[in-house]
Specification:
By secondary structure, the chain is an all-alpha fold. It is built from nine helices and no strands. It folds into two domains: 1-71, Arc Repressor Mutant, subunit A (Orthogonal Bundle), CATH 1.10.10.60; 72-195. It comes from Lederbergia citrisecunda.
Amino acid sequence: MAPKKKFSKEQIIDAAFEIAKKEGMETISIRKVAEKLGSSIAPIYVNFSDVDELKKEVMKKIIELSNQLLSEQNSGHPFRDIGVASLRFASEYSVLFRDLVMKQTEYMENYDEDIGHGLVELMKGDSNLEGFSEEELMTIFFKMRVFTVGLSVMVANGLLPKEFSEERGIELLNSTATDVITSARLSKGMVDEPH
């Protein structure tokens, strides 16, 4: 009898991620991952107690991917970079985007606490947002998140005209961010506009 193949935890997570990327998070099953690896289910159960534990690890990988897309922007304006990274995620990983944003899912229950506050911390380093309190930054972030998610949903679902490019999406993000920040400055009695 041939020896059983061994797979690292990372290889199993990668296989599950590939399934989620093409078919969605809910389609991940131990059997499907085993088939993807060309294996029995035994090596998966050596590393994971059940499919939920594996899905949580896939979600961690998705968050790492999201953070990587954000770090690749690095324009010097983190607020802008957050929006561009979101658009890229929606475009390049549309199935995952739809899964995480358009479906009521346990994976996004703590988004504002887990990710939102981290993004607000990044926003504090943006020269366009100087002078705003944490609460004001959370409001600005929420307003832009509503717009960005809407635009990203349109990107992920192919609802934009064919000639709509990533550059046009970035222009829209920039002009909307300027509008939101300018409005917040006016409400606060600050007269200068963002750079």
